C-alpha cells in the first residue's frame, strides 16, 4: 500500500460548531481512529470557503464529507458520530476491495461477487442520500423565496397605506416622505437578502442592536393607521414607561409587529378591539402581546399555524397573501432566541405573544 491515507475525510464546520458536544465527540473518535488506521481529516471553516457548500451540494453545516474511498458521502446532523461508526468498517472493506485491482476482474468466485454487491449497495445508498440532500435543498430554496416574497409585501403594504392616508389628508407630506424613505430602504435591504439567500442561511441575515421597542411599536401603529382609522376600533396600548431596551434587529422586529398587527386589524370586525401590550417579563425577556376579539382559532389549528404555507381554511377566502406571515414571525423570533405562541378560543379572539431578549450590553 502506498503512503496515501486509506480514508480521507473533510469536516466543514465553523468555530461555533466545533464548540458543540457532538462535534467534540466526533473529533475525539476520529483522532482515536487515526492511531490505528490510515485516516486523513481536514477541517474547513465554511465562512472562509463558502464555495465548498456549492461544490459538495451541502444543505446544512456542520457536515462531514468522505472524499476517499469513492463514492463520496456526506453526513450532517447530530448523529454524525453514530453514522461514522456504522460506516467505518465498510469504508475499510471498500478500500481493500479496490486495492485488489485486476484480481477482482479475473476471479469470479463468490467472494468477488459479494464484494461487488457490497460496493454497489454502498453506491446505491450514496445516490439515495444525494437525492434526499438535493430534494431538501430545493425545499429550502423554495421556502427562502416565499419568505423574501412575503418580506417584500410588508414594506409595500406600509408604503401603499401611507399614500392612501396622504391622499385623504390624514398625514402631511413630511410624514409621507419619511415613511416612503424608510420603506424603500427596507426593500433595498431585502433585495440584498434575496441575492444572498442562495448561499447564506436566511437566519444569518439579521443584525441585532440596542432597540427601543416602545418607539418601534408606536411607529408601526402609525404606519397601519389606514387599517383601523374610521372603523370604530378600540385601540388599546399597554406599554410601561420604564420598559428596558431590547437586543434585536430593528427591521426584523418591525416586520413581526407589522405582520401580527396587520392580521389583528384584518380579522377584527368594525367596532372591535385590538390591544398591543409590552411587559418586562423577567430579567432577560420582554414579552409582546397582540390581541383581538376576532373569530379566534380552533385548538386543533393552533399547533400548526406557525408552519410554512399553512393557512386556516376559514380565513383563506377572506384574505389574500402567501400564507407564510406567521412562519416568518416564528423564524425571526427564534433567531433572536425568543419564543412565539398563540392563546385563542373560537369566537373569543386571539392573543399572539412573543419574547425578545433584553439589551444587557451585548455586541452584534
Automatic annotation (TrEMBL):
PANTHER family: HYBRID SIGNAL TRANSDUCTION HISTIDINE KINASE C, TWO-COMPONENT HISTIDINE KINASE. One of its GO terms (biological process) is rhythmic process. GO terms for molecular function: phosphorelay sensor kinase activity. This is histidine kinase. Residues 147-360 form the Histidine kinase domain. Its EC number is 2.7.13.3. The keyword NADP does not apply. Pfam families: HATPase_c, KaiB. InterPro entries: HATPase_C_sf, HATPase_dom, His_kinase_dom, HisK_dim/P_dom, HisK_dim/P_sf, KaiB_domain, Sig_transdc_His_kin-like_C, Thioredoxin-like_sf. It comes from the Bacteria. NCBIfam families: PRK09303.1. Keywords: Coiled coil, Kinase, Phosphoprotein, Transferase, Two-component regulatory system. SMART domains: HATPase_c, KaiB. It catalyses: ATP + protein L-histidine = ADP + protein N-phospho-L-histidine. Residues 117-144 form a coiled coil. The keyword Kinase applies.
